[in-house]
């Protein structure tokens, strides 16, 4: 039997996991007219190389960027945003965040 130091080392490859999607706002709320950035992160080996973002089930973003920026928000931007990270092994765990766009206060 060869000495332990000469055994073939191996690395376990895995799809994205521990996925989270966050916003740059407090409590995932934004005032109408303001911008918001959603960021998706995950652990993966090999690293994540593609992200998809959905809003209420509709594909918005499919690229290598882990961020989705929404400028000039309005009430139609309220809802559930879903992120799925991918590496060459396929899609990983999905994460969701609910974004609430608050209207202007009427006096």
C-alpha end-to-end distance: 83 Å
Gross morphology: elongated
The main sheet comes to: 6 strands, mixed
Strand content: over 45%
Secondary-structure element sequence? EEEEEEEEE
3D structure, described in words:
The protein has 107 residues and is an all-beta fold. It is built from no helices and 9 strands. It has strands spanning 14-23, 29-31, 36-45, 50-55, 58-63, 67-70, 79-87, 90-91, 95-102. Strands 2, 4, 5, 7, 8 and 9 form a 6-stranded mixed beta sheet that branches. The chain has a 3-stranded antiparallel beta sheet with strand order 1-3-6, with no helix packed on it.
Structure keywords:
107 residues; mainly beta; six-stranded mixed β-sheet; three-stranded antiparallel β-sheet; 0% helix; elongated
Q: How is this structure best summarized?
A:
The chain is mainly beta and 107 residues long. 0% of the residues lie in helices and 54% in strands.
SSE layout and pairings?
Elements (H helix, E strand, L loop, with lengths): L13 E10 L5 E3 L4 E10 L4 E6 L2 E6 L3 E4 L8 E9 L2 E2 L3 E8 L5
Parallel strand pairs: 2-9
Antiparallel strand pairs: 1-3, 3-6, 4-5, 4-7, 7-8, 7-9
């Amino acid at each position: 039997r060869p000495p332990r130091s000469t055994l073939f080392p191996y690395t376990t490859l895995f799809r994205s996991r521990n996925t989270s999607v966050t916003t740059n706002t407090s409590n995932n709320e934004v005032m109408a007219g303001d911008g918001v950035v959603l960021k998706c992160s995950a652990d993966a080996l090999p690293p994540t190389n593609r992200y998809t973002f959905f809003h209420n089930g509709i594909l918005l973003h499919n690229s290598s960027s882990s961020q989705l920026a929404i400028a000039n928000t309005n009430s139609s931007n309220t809802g559930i945003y879903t992120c799925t990270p991918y590496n060459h092994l396929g899609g990983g765990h999905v994460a969701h965040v609910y974004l609430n766009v608050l209207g202007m206060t009427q006096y």
